[in-house]
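Work package 3, deliverable 3.1, input record:
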Amino acid sequence: MMSVEEPGLIIVGASLAGLTCAQSLRAEGYTKKITLIGAEKHLPYNRPPLSKQVLSGKWQGSQTAIDSSEKFAELALEFSLGEIAIGLDVSSKEVKTNTRTLPFEDLIIATGASVRRLASTENMNRVHVLRTLDDSLGLRDALTEVKSAVVIGAGVLGSEVISALSDFGIKATVIDRMPAPQLPLTGGHFASRVNDLFLEHDVLTKYGVEIIAVREDESGITFELSDGSSVTGDIAVVAIGCIPNVEWLANSGLDITNGILCDSNGVAAPHIYAAGDVARWNNPITKKAMRLENQTSAIEQGLAVGKFIVTGESSPTTHPFFWSEIYGNKILMLGSLEAGVPLTIVHGSPSDNRFVAATISNGTTTGIVGWNMPREFRQSRSMMEA
Amino acid sequence: MKIRVDREACIGAGQCALVAGSIFDQDDDGLVVLLTDTPSDEYVAFARKAATLCPAKAIALEE
Ligand SMILES: Cc1cc2nc3c(=O)[nH]c(=O)nc-3n(C[C@H](O)[C@H](O)[C@H](O)COP(=O)(O)OP(=O)(O)OC[C@H]3O[C@@H](n4cnc5c(N)ncnc54)[C@H](O)[C@@H]3O)c2cc1C
Ligand code: SF4
């Protein structure tokens, strides 16, 4: 039986990282009360399908749920949804929310990240962003009604959105201030491959330009660009990255520069931990603190924090991993590819559109990517451990 | 315990086969294949680990 004693542990942010912390705590034998405070009204759900299966219409929104409320009840997790943390007092160990003040014995901050907005477009009806389930459902509805769309940002999210547009037969334009598309952790090695996919699908590309002005009217939304040209679409999707949700910690005394600074166990201050997209963990190997924005890092940090709180034991540092699907191409990435180091092809061949490639410098494999070759990708993962 | 996998959600990351190779395998497309849907008691912890680690949350456990 679980003995539930106050004040217990509070997790702010009821999404992947927060939930994984809670599951890990229970798996390690934590018996005190666990409360998850979440600003969204939904129980924890998966975001990756929001730009993939949900956006394309293959999935209902409800299919993104991570687990059932019965499962959460079995773990004695208490959810308070629609509640927003607005302040933290480190010395009195209290979290202030929009409705109450909560004392805690331990606190885990897992407030994730929010989309970066494009200045002056915040209130425009034709402008969409994509971070939450509600964003995805709203964008999906819009896609069934429009003929053209402008995507701002040719990163991984922008690229996934652009490829979804072609499923709907929507004419796409992409604008980016960088000279080429960018996938995270790939060191620029996939810029031309992704660009080729855009061109094959008749995407109009505008790289290396700044947006000078945005205008919305009955006929559409128009972006005036620094090269003197302008582009118009029925809607726009802004995918220019994320910023960590740390404003509520502004007066806490924690170091919140680009995410909450933590040691390699996720400790931000005594009894205060952070995990997931909001956290900037120190990496003992590279000696750098980095914010990682992917599912696997959120899960692994969640597991590590739960274990550390209960047992005091550290978990090994792992390599970042992410995946994407662009025009049906399945991309898997482990570690990070080094810019300027030529790719070594490990399996398959790029001309067949199926390969596993790595960057190897001084005998050390720094990153592996699988392009439509998941099985061989897994077999190659051992290169990173060697 | 009974395991269910959602092959439409699976992205072929292979975490499951790495931590619990006696329960999960991958087909030629890298998608998860269950070797057994009812693991024996000594493997239950591995199944749980795989479900937590799966980045696509494609593994569900009914206990
Ligand atoms: C469209 C999309 C596609 C993606 N695709 C991939 C992919 O293919 N592969 C991959 O690895 N990763 C992908 N990601 C990234 C992945 O979803 C994130 O890394 C992951 O969600 C991080 O989890 P988290 O719990 O740290 O943060 P989040 O999921 O951002 O959750 C934080 C939660 O905290 C809540 N919150 C914030 N502030 C407060 C507050 N003050 N009080 C209470 N609650 C608060 C938020 O409302 C939110 O629910 C994708 C993300 C998006 C948006
Ligand atoms: S860990 Fe999940 S996503 Fe990866 S192969 Fe297994 S079921 Fe599929």
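The pocket of iron/sulfur cluster (ligand 2) is lined by residues B 5, 10-16, 24, 26, 32, 54, 56, 58-59 (CB under 6 Å).
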